[in-house]
Specification:
The chain is mainly β. The protein has a 4-stranded antiparallel sheet, with no helix packed on it. A 4-stranded antiparallel sheet has the order 5-6-7-8, with no helix packed on it. 11% of the residues lie in helices and 35% in strands. Strand 7 and strand 8 form a beta hairpin. The relative contact order is 0.11. The protein is globular, with a radius of gyration of 19 Å. It contains 1 helix and 8 strands. It folds into 2 domains: 38 residues, no CATH class; 80 residues, Thrombin, subunit H, CATH 2.40.10.
Length: 141
Amino acid sequence: MLPEHRLAALLDQVKESQINNCLFHTRSTQPSLYADHMCDRSQFPSEVMLELEKHSGELWQIAFSHDGTRLAACGQDQFILIWDVSSFDMIHKIEAHQDGEISNLSFSPDGKMMVSCGMDRYAKIWDVEVGTHCRLLISKC
């Protein structure tokens, strides 16, 4: 028995595949199923507009909040830096994992919280508005 709306799910997968295989994807609209999808290279940003140089080590990940107003970065230097995207002023510099680098971070859907995962095998939850630690999650790895 086939699941409900299987054809719609397959068509969505085709569109997603076209976007993922587009080397210079910049469009916000869905691709058409009538033609192969390809974005124009001239519309792809190719100039450095701004460098955020507050980290002292390598950056390993950046993440935008879901509403696009905040940008967070983490990496080798054990800090999470959060910028306001409209002005690129740094909002918070959080010393997140004293015993290891930060390998991953992600915003909550509402953008008010963030989780960071460090090489110290801890996951921590942060209040993005004030830049404070809310909860510690311990890994058994």
